[in-house]
Each structure stands twice: as structure tokens, then as C-alpha cells.
Amino acid sequence: MAAMSDTGLELHDVGYRYPNSDSAVFERLNFNIAPGEFVALVGGSGVGKSTVLRCVAGLIQPSSGRMQAPANTAKGTRPSAVVFQDTRLLPWRRLRANVGYGLAGLGLSKSERDARIDEVLALIGMKAFGERWPHEISGGQAQRVGLARALAVRPHILLMDEPFSAVDALTRSRLQDELLAIWKRLNMAVLFVTHDIAEAAYLADRVCVMGGSPARIVFDERVPVEHPRARENSELQYFAQRVSDAL
User: Fold this and answer.
1) Phi and psi torsions of 209, nearest 5°
2) Which pLDDT tens digits describe the chain residue by residue (247 residues)?
3) What is the pTM of this model?
4) Do you find a cis peptide bond into 228, omega within 30 degrees of 0?
5) How many CB atoms within 10 Å of residue 172?
6) What DSSP designation does 89 have?
7) Under DSSP, is residue 92 helix (H, G, I), strand (E, B) or coil?
8) How far is Cα 111 from Cα 236, in angstroms, rounded to an integer?
9) Does the keyword Plastid apply (predicted)?
10) Which residues make beta-bridge pairs with 189?
11) How far apart are the C-alpha atoms of 192 and 207, rounded to whole Å?
């Protein structure tokens, strides 16, 4: 599979307030994601992390500011794709059909769609599971299928909204390592929303922290440890503590 993107993402003074609300969820939000960069967005519950992600995905419009998102210029691609916490697999579709759901309207032939589905199922190690139903797989496997569905559209930026928070600790660690391997292989930009500081420090090139009310970016620093990383690395743990102190 080819690299996903040659453009990044920029947010300039972006704010959001719910309709009929007098107060903003966040305001004057400024950060960027370079092509191929993995950025984790961390913050407490209710601070607006998932709302930022929905703005980037185009699911909602920001109330203020300017957002420069990757353009959709290549055939068979989308500007972004979202991996949700609850996977949102369609129970009446087999896994192959779930993975191919986002390919509709991209101008691909049936053979191209089938090849794309085969490619991403192989990438997540589940090519042999394509004819199974969602109820026949585990939670960790369902998350892999959700990731495959997002990768199938070759997004310029992959958006992940606490995708591993509903699985057990061992599965979570495995999924984190699988995500890193896929990210390195595809060289795509990633915005990863999480409340888990250790997860953010382990995965990301850069960690941004949202805080305050209305929320803003109160911390934005590169992780000082190169990949591959050991979770028990003392410098990584010290960085995680600094992130925690910023919350």
C-alpha cells in the first residue's frame, strides 16, 4: 500500500460552542500535524477532545477560527477516516462488507474494491476472517476490522477516538504495537485522542494537552524517546509525568 499523504493539518484559533450555548467548549485552539506525524491529543473528560476530532473529520463545523485539512486529490481516497471506540461495525454485514463500506462512491471498480479489502485485511492479520459476522469475533479483532475499514479509503489523515479504551490491558498493548507497525509502514498522519497518558507517550511523536475552560492547548511537546520504545523507559515515564502535570 502506498503512503497515505503529502499534506498535513493545521488549526488556527479554532473554537467550538454547542448551538444555543453561551460558553465555548474550546477556543483559540492552535496546533498542526505534519505529513506522516503521529500526534496524541490528551485531556480530561469533557474537555472537548472528541469534538476537535469531529471538527477535523468534517462531522461538525467549528464555530470560529480556520482549519486547513488535507485535500482530497487522489482517486480512491478520502481526506480523513475515523476509528471509533465502539468500532460501529454493521451487524448485518460480513467483515469484508464492513471493511468495504467506505469505498462506495470512490469510483473504484469491483476488482479494485476487492483488492483494497484484501490488502487491508492482510495488513491487520485477518484476511482469513473476511466471511465472518461481527458477532463471531472478539473485541480486539473488531477494533482491527474498524482500523482496516478506515485504512481501506487511504485517508490523508487517520483520526482515532480512544479506539483501545474498551479492550483489556493485554489486548490494548498488542493493538498499540500493531498500530505503530502499520503507521510506520504507511507513513500516514495520525491524530489519536486518548485520556491515557502512558498510551499517548508510548505511541505519539508529539503530545498535545487540552486544558482549561474553555479549553485550549496548554502543552505541546515532542516525545523525547525515539521509536521503537520500551514502555518502562525512564525518560518516557518522566515525559508522561510532565504530561500529567500539565492536565
Assistant:
1) -115, 130
2) 444 445 589 999 999 999 888 899 999 999 999 999 999 999 998 899 999 999 999 999 999 999 987 766 678 899 899 999 888 899 999 999 999 999 988 999 999 999 999 999 999 999 999 999 999 999 999 999 999 999 999 999 999 999 998 889 999 999 999 999 999 999 899 999 999 999 999 999 999 999 999 999 999 999 999 999 999 999 999 999 999 999 8
3) 0.93
4) yes
5) 18
6) -
7) coil
8) 45
9) no
10) 157
11) 9
9-71+156-246 fold: Rossmann fold (3.40.50)
Cell readout for 212 is 482549561
- Give the Cα separation of 3 and 95 in Å (integer): 24
Name, in order, each residue with C-beta under 8 angstroms of 232's C-beta and a sequence gap of 6 or more. Answer: none
Q: How many CA atoms lie within 13 A of 177 on its CB side?
A: 9
**3-state class of 242 per DSSP?**
helix
Pairwise CA distance, residues 186 & 151, whole Å: 10
Domain residue ranges of the chain, discontinuous segments joined by +: 9-71+156-246, 91-154
C-alpha span between 185 and 4 (Å, rounded): 10
Which pLDDT does position 73 carry in this prediction?
62
Grid cell of 141 as nine digits: 479483532
DSSP letter at 129 equals G
Strands (E), 102-175: 157-161
